[in-house]
Amino acid sequence: MSEPAVELRGVSKVYPGTVPVRALDNVDLRVEKGEFVAVMGPSGSGKSTLLHVVGCMDRPTSGTVLVDGIDVAGLGDRELARIRAEKVGFVFQFFNLIPTLNCLENVELPMHILGRLGGADIRARAVRLLQMVGLGERMSHRPAQLSGGERQRVAIARALANMPTLMLADEPTGNLDTQTGLEIVEMLREINEATGQTVIVVTHDPVVAEGAGKVVEMVDGRVVTGDARRGHIAESRGSLHRELEVLRREVMMLELLKEAMHPGEYEARLRGIRSRLDRLEGSFK
Amino acid sequence: MLSIVVKMILRDFTTRRTRTFLTLLGVAIGIAMMVTLGAISEGTSAQLQRSFSEMADFMVSPSRGFAMGNRMDEHYLDVIRTYPEVRAASAYLGGMMFVDGDISLVVGAEEEIFSVISVELGEGRLPNWSNPEMVLGFAAAREMRVEVGDTVEISSGGEGEGEEFLVVGILERAGSFFDSYVFIPLGHMQNMTGYHGQVSFILVELKSQDLADEFEERVESSLAGMEVTSPSAMMRSIDKILGFINGVLLAVSGVSLLVGGTSVAATMMTSVVERTREIGILRALGATREMILGIFLLQSFLLCLFGAVLGVYLSLAITPLIEARISEAAGFSFKAIFSPGLVLGALALAEGIGFVSGIAPALKASRTQPVEALRYE
């Protein structure tokens, strides 16, 4: 069985001050690769803090955070930045596109930051991603020239740019009308289903939660439902099948972006998937 | 990475055009002052260098001091020529005369004058020093619109009393005050001025600079009332004084550059605060602190670089006006010198300012916490 996309063990986050705020209180959470998880809860329940800790934007006060099997709690700023670039894609409530860059450049930005691909490869992949979110015709538009829904689609393309382990969305529909919000949720779900992209969405929109495969509810910094360890029972045939499904989706995603990828990177990812498949085959026997 | 960062910075400049331009201007004015002063200083220095290489090594004059009215007996010349240290010596009788109606400095001299001062003949020939013939400096000839073969009237007073001289040669452009001189034979000058048998001073060139002390001693011990001065040494000290004055002026323009630098720092600080959210986005996308530091330092560098380039252009635009004023005042054509070293030095200085002004805002930017930055409205 492969590593979970992310695993939290006993994670707490305390903001110091005259009255210290315990934003996360001994949280355990496990998200498998390929899952679509909605994190729900009232304002101030620690949802965003959870997302920031999972996304390596913030360090926990105590506990262990494993992203793709890497313990990130003890990493320095540079390593955390590297993990954000490589393994995390963010989608925000207020889109957070760079206003001076056009759509194409906004999608290219994370690839430039990671610095793994050359300029031509970066451009080709950005074009493909924008076509994928249906903005092939608006690539040279600046964010200010786009509607909210279009901006969020650019943000989704940007989040996928480095083919991250985790896609983290913080209230992605919070700044959109109901119809557009639905379209965005639908798009996230489609990406999850078609490509096996792991998605964690923080929301208090029940419609968003409906589309999710798993719902985690938070109150006062604690996870109250959606037992994080539910999927942690001994390996059943069911979980093996799900793992197989994840691999199948990853291969699809890989094929989808193959043209825009550096051949070396494509080979490496394919090799990774193949070795996991071999291990999986071993477990079936 | 670099290309997209430069794109972001340049677009930020163009979206905030007015502020960027005003900040640029602050740097540009400082750099323009500095480059202009530097170019004028280099021009002056080069001019002096040329002048003292052209000028005679030594001048023997009455010890009452060097003044226009001082005169000495021309027989001293014969004595000085017998000194073993002397390679060449020439009489020099200068005076302001009317040359074709305009006042000009006329020098009565002899054949050896052009062995003592080193100005080359540009066209024509040297005068036959017993005939009424003359050679002119480059600028004098141009100003009087005179060519070889023309006749020019020189007089000490009113109209009609003058003597006609044939222009036989024009000197090469020297870039020094010799350019505006008129040279005629000593005898004619003495007749016109009435100073028969007299000269203003005697110019001397030695066989070697090492003989300077011996020559001075010999003059002082054997020629009573005469003293030796060295025009080239004088000019060297003038050059030093000018160098010092230029240093002070450069320091003053340095202060204006400092003001420019302060405005860059202020602009950068504002920019960091305004772009807090952008910093948060970049950090979320995986940019390290060092990248953020680099981005804002680069912005400051570019701001100062553009300011400096604008400043250099500004300087190129105003310097001809200053050259014209100096030429007018000095009576010879003055040229400022924009050496590559000067321009590169100014650009390097501007980049230094860029670093100093940019480092604090860039550090502030790099220390911004990503989560807080994303919350910034």
Largest sheet of chain B: 6 strands, mixed, barrel
- Give the helix tally of chain B: 12
Instruction: Give helix and strand order of chain A, one letter per element, not per position.
Output: EEEHEEHEHHHEHEHEEHH
Largest interface: A-B, 32 and 25 residues
Average pLDDT metric of chain B: 88
Radius of gyration of chain B (Å): 31 Å
| Oligomerization state | heterodimer
**What portion of residues of chain A belong to β-strands?**
15-25%
Shape of chain B: elongated
SS elements, strand count of chain B? 12
CATH architectural name of the largest domain in chain A: 3-Layer(aba) Sandwich
How is the main sheet of chain A built?
6 strands, mixed
Number of domains of chain A: 2
The CATH superfamily of the largest domain in chain A turns out to be: P-loop containing nucleotide triphosphate hydrolases
End-to-end separation of chain B: 27 Å
Which regions of chain B have little confidence, pLDDT < 50, spanning 5+ residues?
Answer: none
CATH topology of the largest domain in chain A, by name, is Rossmann fold
Structural overview:
With 285 residues, chain A is of the alpha/beta class. Chain A folds into two domains: 6-224, Rossmann fold, CATH 3.40.50.300; 229-282. Helices cover 43% and strands 20% of the residues of chain A. Chain A has helices at 47-54, 77-87, 103-114, 119-132, 148-160, 178-195, 206-210, 237-256, 263-284, and strands at residues 6-15, 21-31, 36-40, 62-67, 70-71, 88-91, 166-170, 198-202, 214-219, 222-225. Chain A has a six-stranded mixed beta sheet, sandwiched between helices. Chain A has a four-stranded antiparallel beta sheet with strand order 2-1-4-5, covered by helices on one side. In chain A, strand 1 (6-15) and strand 2 form a beta hairpin. In chain A, helix 4 crosses helix 5 and helix 5 runs parallel beside helix 6. The longest helix of chain A has 22 residues, at 263-284. Mean pLDDT of chain A is 86; it is low at 227-236. Chain B has 377 residues and is α+β, with helices and mostly antiparallel strands. Helices cover 58% and strands 18% of the residues of chain B. In chain B, the strands form two sheets. Chain B has a six-stranded mixed β-barrel. A two-stranded antiparallel sheet of chain B has the order 2-10. In chain B, helix 8 packs antiparallel against helix 10 (289-330) and helix 8 (231-274) runs parallel beside helix 11 (340-366). The longest helix of chain B is centred in the C-terminal third of the chain and has 44 residues, at 231-274. Chain B is elongated and about 95 Å long. The model of chain B has no long low-confidence stretch (mean pLDDT 88).
